[in-house]
Amino acid sequence: MEAYDDERLKQESPLLHGIPRTGPFEVPQGFFDRFPHEVQQQITARPANRWPLLLRRAGIALPIAAMLAVVLWYFTTTPDPGTDTIAIVDTTTAPNVDDLLLLDDDATFAALAVEDPQAALGSAPDLTDEEIVAYFEDEGTDITELLTTL
Amino acid sequence: MSEPMSDKELLALFHREESRHYAFNLLVRQYQRRLYAFIRRMVTDHDETQDVLQNTFIKAWNGLDNFRADSQLFSWLYRIAYNESITHLKRMRRGLFVSEDAVIERLTTTLDSSEHFSGDAIQRKLQTAVMRLPDKQRAVFNMKYFDEMKYEEISAVTGTSVGALKASYHIAVKKIERWLTDQTK
């Protein structure tokens, strides 16, 4: 230990400084003679990986990159199954006069025409005279004037 | 015992196919004692130390082709041993499903019952105090106090800045001093 560190240790921890630094652990006899052979046995039992680290890393990284590329390609080229059946409607602008004129042609009205207008309106509600009078009174309609007009 | 080979000579031998195993055998012989001592102080038990040391050298064998000669071979081996020791202790905690105190208790019991502990009472107390430190702080303390490594060397092993290592070591010293003082009262 450097002299500076030793002096500092003496000041900071006199108790620790006073303990001899000999290794208290014992090793079984002959261990260091046997150990290198045991390591040799281990490394010959399992074949050494002779591929350089870069190639080993590339061997893992390249298949992963290829898989990611395929997944990315699939999602970017395959359309969403719902999008081709839904009409795109522009809701940001109100219809102008030209748009309304397009509707005002014979073909449009012909398509809307019905065979029996009365049937299309449905049957009239079955009301009693009293109910009709009460309705007109609620509405504030002058019955005499209505009859004159009709 | 013959003069130990330099890292450069060992690596040159290792990179030749015909002397690969011979070079590795020399490497193990050259570094096994220092690495054993470090691991033993971390895991306490001899058999567990042997397993961790064996894993360290097997990883070294698998990685030596990619070892860059810009760092010291011993620092590199020490780094593997350090990581293997920390991993072993974490695995032990997970396997035991117990608290930190229970792990310290187990390590202390191993120390007390070990037939391979030759230290006297005060050294036993010191080892018990060291075991109470968190794993990484214990590793730093052992490297500095017992292995007398420089902070720069410890930094190369642990990947921690020199400033942080100095702080960690001095906190560890304070903790140990306090514990030893309490025990001697």
Could you walk me through the main structural features you see in this protein, from its secondary elements to its overall organization?
The complex is a heterodimer of chains A (150) and B (185). Chain A has 150 residues and is an all-alpha fold. Chain A has nine helices and no strands. Chain A has helices at 3-12, 14-17, 31-45, 53-77, 97-103, 106-112, 117-121, 129-139, 143-149. Chain A is elongated and about 130 Å long. Chain B folds into two domains: 1-98, Rna Polymerase Sigma Factor, Chain: A, CATH 1.10.1740.10; 118-185, Arc Repressor Mutant, subunit A (Orthogonal Bundle). In chain B, helix 2 (20-43) packs antiparallel against helix 3 (46-63), helix 2 crosses helix 4 and helix 4 (73-96) packs across helix 8. The chains are: A mainly alpha (150), B mainly alpha (185). Chains A and B meet through helix 1 and helix 3 of A and helix 2, helix 3, helix 6, helix 7 and helix 9 of B.
Fill in the keyword field for this structure.
heterodimer; A: 150 residues; mainly alpha; B: 185 residues; Rna Polymerase Sigma Factor, Chain: A; Arc Repressor Mutant, subunit A; 2 domains; 9 helices
